[in-house]
Task: structure prediction
Amino acid sequence: MASAAATSAPLRLLSSSPLSRPLLSRPHLLILSRPVSFQRLAARSAASPTPSTSSSAPDPSPVDPAQLPPALRDIIALFQSVPDERTRYKQLLAYAARLPPMDPALKSDANRVRGCVSQVWVHAAPEAEAPGCVSFQADSDAQLTKGLAALLVLGLSGAPARDVAMVPVEFIELLGIRQSLSPSRNSGLLNMINLMKLKALEIAAGQEVTGGQEIRQERTETPAVEKEEPQFEAFGGQVHESSEAERPEEEEFEEEPAAVVEGNGSLGGGRKERIRDSLERGLSPVELKIEDISYQHSGHAGVAGSDGETHFNVRVVSKEFEGKSMLKRHRAVYDLLQDELKSGLHALSIDAKTPSEV
Amino acid sequence: SAKATDAYESARRKVANFINAADSREIIFTRNATEAINLVAYSWGLSNLKQGDEIILTVAEHHSAIVPWQFVSQKTGAVLKYVGLTKEEVPDIEQLKGLLSSKTKIVVVHHVSNVLGSMLPIEEVVSCANKVGAKVLVDACQSVPHMPVDVQKLGADFLVASSHKMCGPTGVGFLHGKFEILSSMEPFLGGGEMIADVFEDKSTYAEPPSRFEAGTPAIGEAIGLGVAIDYLSHFGMQRIHEYEKVLGSYLYESLLSVPNVRIYGPAPSASDHRAPLCSFNVENVHPTDIAEILDLQHGIAIRSGHHCAQILHRTLGINASARASLHFYNTKEEVDAFIHGLKATIDFLTSHH
Result:
């Protein structure tokens, strides 16, 4: 190596060293035919409030805050009222500090959020005091990520598992922090939300035996379906381990007369007809299409012992759905099919539209 | 199109001159350094390695230098052996020498570490490897852009580097290989340009470098790399190297003055070379938090994560680190701004309690 400047030069010598003059002189011309100019990037500093803050109304987004769990609504309102980016970060850090510690035993691979640069874990469990509701725990070794996790935990814990499973991920927009987060942080946040929704879905499905309403995702969403498999086994397990309250339904289930399994179920136990009757009476649909897709699920432990007629696709077009959110439409369909749900109907994939939407 | 070919081949010659290759036919353009390493792994490794042969690497290698050899190991039964770090946090050259044996077929090492900032004595490694008949592949991504690199002096069999780290465009990198070795190697990708004659059941192949450049190349990108080399040569790599040595030391010393900071790799005085970069952690603060706040509140960009060196991070006992790195266009004032921003960021992240 050539005689270089002393690598351990004390700092005070540097004033007369090569550093006092940058290597590149300014203005700087490249040896090209055309000079290139450099543009200074302005720092996105917290000194100037960003335009997209509380003064402007939230972006016209398709998310209806009324659809969100109340605790989450409150948090969103809080973030929208924060005047500048720097304070928003402080708010996130404050949430991080508020998050109750997570049981180290729960920091497992199954609870690990993928796609995060830091380590993040999320755990969901049925809320002991509120049947049908879910509670979350989370932790991260990075504070900003922990703040985001805390926000989600505080916003979604205690809500019905079903509602959490259906929370539209676009609600992040309402927080007004998306542009404050790096792209990888944003995708980490999305992954966190999706994992929490998935876990809520599993918990909601686990309550299926009581005739609770299950949200069944389209088969084409393969990652979700792959995760759904264990829930059917859990379902099968629960038939045996269920509590007192569930027993009457359980017995009914086991006494279901063996039905001939047909591709379309039309010569079977008649469930398809009963569904049709109920929906026609309750919704006066202009279009109603019911398809028995139980054969797609015939391998599951959860449906072992039944003979088809467990899973249906339902497409219903009705004026009754006007003015109703997707959640309310699905509820309307489920409410009409309570008897079926109690007697072995496992899941419906519902396409609910008004005549004007078709 | 003749002009484009001229410019493309002229870029090849520029690369050859830049690293003092004996012949421009020893320069193969690839998409990046990663592809260059894969080329060696597939074209040389698969034909020359067998069950029980050994490949030596260090724990500080970039994933791109490790994973292709894992593929080769799975396919051939060759075994990977890793050299660890000394307590100064540099790869242990004595351990490397101890691992060399008649079973060693290739040694894959970095020239300068992208995390530790340390430099390896490549000539010494080559000399020891040659004694047991092993080849040497050098990952020079962090050295070529920062200092004069002379492949004939280093003596390695293969050397790779990457355009976008040396002021060039993304989408191009290169492999330098000794001509005799390249001539003995099987092709990598098959197709147009790399053939001599094509028959239905077989084909004959072109000489290097064409043999390893199938299909239409990244012409514009290679020409861009040539221009980048012109630009760097305008300053001279030695001058760049000396400036960066002083600036890099300044960065290191300044960073040390920040409380609770832990810098990885050797101190500048402990070795004769430390790259102008510092990978570091601040106690009780996550590096991704630091990087994010530095960026969004101070307009300063550093990297955080594992820097494509998970094995190294695990060896150091950490999950992630932050890394500030400099190139010849950075100034002392910018280092000062970084340190100032870092202190403010740490305050911000630790004061909310």
User: Anything to note?
Assistant: The longest helix of chain B spans residues 237-256. Residues 115 and 307 of chain B are 7 Å apart (CA to CA). Chain B is about 40% helix and 15% strand. The longest strand of chain B covers residues 104-110.
